[in-house]
Design brief:
The protein is α+β, with helices and mostly antiparallel strands and 114 residues long. The protein is built from three helices and three strands. It is globular.
Length: 114
């Protein structure tokens, strides 16, 4: 029996989505110092033909460091996929409810009350 992605799965069978998400943990929000996965900034991952298309958001639509996060994202996925495309999405808006438990622990360690 072989493993095949389920219908509607975001993987194309080459690279598991989990590998992409793990690599994205190297992308750190420059203002908060927490990775974009644990902050809940990654809304979706679509893999097709070795291209990762990411639906991502920011803590604020007016974030002046979008380019930094884009550059880090491309660097983090280099060698894992051939190309990276980022769709910046603003709905639903990001909020603290999107932060993972690990992200909350990291923020608390930095002195944030969350």
């Amino acid at each position: 029996m072989t493993d095949t992605p389920a219908a509607g799965s975001s993987t194309a069978g080459t690279i598991p989505e989990e590998d992409v998400l793990e690599a994205l943990k190297d992308v750190v929000d420059p203002e908060l110092g927490i990775n974009v996965v644990d902050l809940g900034l990654v809304y979706g991952v679509n893999l097709a033909d070795e291209v990762a298309t990411l639906d991502m958001t920011l803590t604020s639509a007016a974030c002046p460091l979008t380019d930094v996060i884009e550059d880090q994202t491309h660097s983090a996925l280099e060698g894992l996929v051939k190309d990276v495309k980022i769709n910046w999405v603003w709905l639903p808006p990001w909020g603290p409810d999107k932060i993972t438990d690990d992200g909350r622990d990291q923020l608390r360690a930095l002195g944030f009350n969350i």
